[in-house]
Amino acid sequence: MNPLAAMYTGASNGIREVWSNKVRTLLSMSGIILGVAALVAMVGIVQGMLGNMRASFERSGGVLKLEVHPREAPEDQLHIAGISPGMTWRDVGAIDRATPLAAFVTPIVDMRWERFVGNGRRTGALLHGVTPDWTGISQRKLEYGRFIADYDINSKAPVIVVGAHVVAELFGTGQNVIGEQIRVNGDVYTIIGQFEPVAGIGGAFGGGRRWSWEDRINLMPATTAISRYRGSDRVDRIEIMAADVETLPDLIGQIENTLTQTHRGIQDFEIRTQDEQLAELKKLENSFTYSLGGIAGISLLVGGIGIMNVMLASVSERIREIGVRKAIGARSYDIFIQFLAEAVVISILGGLFGLAASVGLLSIARDSIPEGGNISLLPITAMLYGFLFSSLIGLASGVYPALRASRLDPIDALRYE
Question: How many Cα atoms within 13 Å fall on the side-chain side of residue 323?
Answer without folding.
Answer: 14
